[in-house]
Design brief:
Pfam families: Aminotran_3. The protein has 438 residues and is an alpha/beta fold. Helix content is 38%, strand content 15%. The strands form three sheets. A seven-stranded mixed beta sheet has the order 4-10-9-8-7-5-6, sandwiched between helices. The chain has a four-stranded antiparallel beta sheet with strand order 11-12-14-13. α2 runs antiparallel to α11, α3 packs across α11 and α4 packs across α10. Bound molecules: pyridoxal-5'-phosphate.
């Protein structure tokens, strides 16, 4: 018998056993405490061990945990859809629930392609993404992802959708080219990819408003997403925004698209929707998509067994209540400013750290050979992976990001409820780990 029957990500690595969590901290069975500076994977946005959420889950489980969506609707799912669509920008007035971010972006493909079928244009089936992007692990979502490291050879199971350049001026701008000029060029390149693919065959493009794991928090200059919206409208292509990381307060706004003044046709959320208390994600759809179904087949055949189950929805409602009752988004803005200032101080003291970037409580920085040149580090040094291990040894969880050799980055996404003294502690631990990199 093996020591453990559980297949883990890295065989041969010892994983401590988590026993409980409280606020921004996790604890293991050897009594060690970890500051959860990444919310696990940008997920635990209201912290650990929130009693009201546990209580809401207990109450709902005792009443009815599961009912099937083609047989019943249920109160919590109806209420969650109502509240999410009320928070969302524009006429994103409909919600469909799934169980993970991957299922959400995968749903978005099916809904986008299905939309054009309903409108009598069945040849529009391609979905274009960008390099340095990640939309999930299911084969459809991976097909749209520009993440070579997570795309080993699955042969014909992965669709070779074209990818456009990312809006990542720090790495890709020409010498002397401004961030705005580079982003405009990247948007034009996106348009050229759509035209080359033939807009008559393109259902949608998909973009993370702020790139997460594939880039390490790549924030485009204001106007870039609006330009993509304009290109999509002109070429009759749907715009899918993947807000699996950025949605539900991570950037200090309910949605990053709201800050950018852009209403996508489909908007995917995950992670922060349940804050990690249950596997749950959603796609919000604009009215015109649902009208096309209503005046066409009348069927939205996109769901899963657990889609919109009452227990999951009640959990997310309790999370939403917590976010609203404690003005958590305001805290994200204030503590985000504190974290950013501290990160910039640390970068100034460590020449191999560059391009501190982010919004709200989603921050990243890049490891470089030298901040003056910005050249990426030797991939063999695995700077981000080494740093993550050093942080872990200090009792701090951070998230490795980026795709070597293009970039090598780290993400910070602590619970949005983090306190001022806890941000200081986070910075102290980061500083100690950075000192260990010398
Ligand atoms: N989209 C983005 C932007 C993500 O960061 C992730 C996960 O990290 C996903 C989709 C996939 O979500 P999940 O891991 O819940 O399937």
């Amino acid at each position: 018998m093996p020591a453990s029957a559980l297949l883990k990500q890295h065989l041969g690595v010892h994983y401590p056993t988590v026993t409980h969590g409280e606020g921004v901290f996790l604890f293991d069975d050897e009594g060690r405490r970890y500051l959860d500076g990444a919310g696990g994977a940008m997920t635990a946005s209201i912290g650990h061990g929130v009693r009201e959420v546990a209580e809401a889950m207990r109450e709902q489980a005792a009443r009815v945990a599961f009912s099937y969506r083609t047989q019943f609707t249920n109160g919590p799912a109806e209420e969650l859809a109502r509240r999410l669509t009320a928070l969302a920008p524009g006429d994103l007035d409909h919600a469909f629930f799934v169980n993970s971010g991957s299922e959400a972006t995968e749903f978005a493909i099916r809904a986008a392609v299905g939309h054009w079928r309903e409108r009598g244009r069945p040849h529009k089936v391609k979905v274009l993404g960008r390099e340095l992007s990640y939309h999930g692990m299911t084969l459809g979502s991976l097909s749209m992802s520009g993440h070579a490291a997570r795309r080993p050879d699955y042969g014909s199971l992965l669709h070779p959708f074209p990818v456009a350049p990312p809006a990542h001026a720090f790495r890709f701008a020409r010498p002397g080219e401004s961030e705005e000029a580079y982003a405009a060029r990247a948007a034009e390149a996106f348009e050229r990819e759509i035209v080359a693919a033939d807009p008559g065959t393109v259902a949608a493009i998909i973009v993370e408003p702020i790139v997460g794991a594939a880039g390490g928090v790549l924030v485009p200059p204001s106007g870039y997403l609006r330009r993509l919206r304009e290109i999509c409208d002109r070429l009759e292509v749907l715009l899918i925004l993947d807000e699996v990381i950025t949605g539900l307060g991570r950037t200090g706004a309910w949605f990053a698209s709201e800050t950018e003044g852009v209403v996508p046709d489909l908007l995917a959320v995950g992670k922060g929707l349940s804050a990690g208390y249950t596997p749950m994600a959603a796609v919000l759809l604009r009215t015109h998509l649902v009208e096309a179904i209503a005046s066409g087949s009348g069927v939205a055949p996109f769901g899963h067994t657990f889609s919109g189950n009452p227990l999951g929805a009640a959990t997310c409602l309790a999370v939403l209540d917590h976010l609203e009752a404690h003005a958590v988004l305001d805290n994200a803005v204030e503590r985000g400013a504190q974290l950013a200032a501290g990160l910039r101080r640390l970068a100034a003291a460590h020449p191999f750290v560059a391009d501190v970037r982010g919004r709200g409580l989603l921050w990243g920085f890049e490891f470089v050979r030298d901040a003056r040149t910005g050249h990426p580090p030797d991939p063999a040094h695995q700077a981000a992976a080494v740093f993550v291990r050093l942080c872990f040894a200090e009792g701090l969880i951070v998230y490795p990001a980026g795709i070597a050799p293009l970039n090598n980055a780290v993400m910070l996404a602590p619970p949005l409820t983090i306190r001022e003294d806890e941000v200081e502690l986070l910075l102290e631990l980061l500083g100690a780990a950075l000192n260990g990199m010398r």
